[in-house]
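Apologies for my clumsy wording, but can you show me some protein sequence, whichever is easiest, together with the matching structure tokens, please?
=====
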Amino acid sequence: MSGVPMSIFYKSGPNRGLVRSRAVRDAVVALAKAKLKPDAQPDRAGHLLGEIDTPDGPFRVVARHAVDLVILDGSLKRVVLIKRVFPPGAGLWALPGGFIDGGETAADAALREAEEETGIVAGLRAAAGAASRRSKRSSASRDLASAIRMVPPWRIARRFDIRATDWLKSSVKLSASATLRRGDLLAVMTQPFVLVLPELSQAAVRAGDDAAAVRIAEIRQLGKSDMGVGDHLDIIRAAIAVAST
């Protein structure tokens, strides 16, 4: 298909480009559940899930795998948030995160995205590098990666984040078996991680990449209406449970 009919998508607002048809969203989620296992975690940038029928005709469905990093302070009461530049949730607050690139692990992607969007991890890498040189440890990045923990499950049934791809100018190869094409439905799935920084209040933050701003927020003051991504508050709560054990 050369483009995506707009009859099944929102046309404006902070969630423009997202599927609004409940039947289409349910069909995509059912396909994802049939093809992927939530007790696993993403091992590549994307999967071709298959094809569904819609009132606007057949659509290929491609899963695009993403990560989110919940950065908490030592009390587990404050969290790092970024203000999103792009939909969904443009102009609202969210966790730092983004898509997995080909050839990187989910944990490495979580650290990279947090570094690009908040600047915090860049400072941590520098500190870890200095410690590695002093102690003759081999890899600052490996030391840092070992500090983050996965927050289960891998979230594959995200009805609110199924996107149009009419913005694509050319096809994007995501893996050996998955190529994203203009006209596909893009189902965004995410694997959350958590990182606890006892000295978070002293961390230097700098918004970059897809973030318009960064802040360290009091979790108890956050509500669903503050968040630009539908499951991020639930992910924060799940991350606190993991960090508490």
Remarks:
- Residues 120-135 form the longest helix (16 residues).
- The chain has five helices and eleven strands.
- The helical segments are 22-35, 106-118, 120-135, 140-145, 232-243.
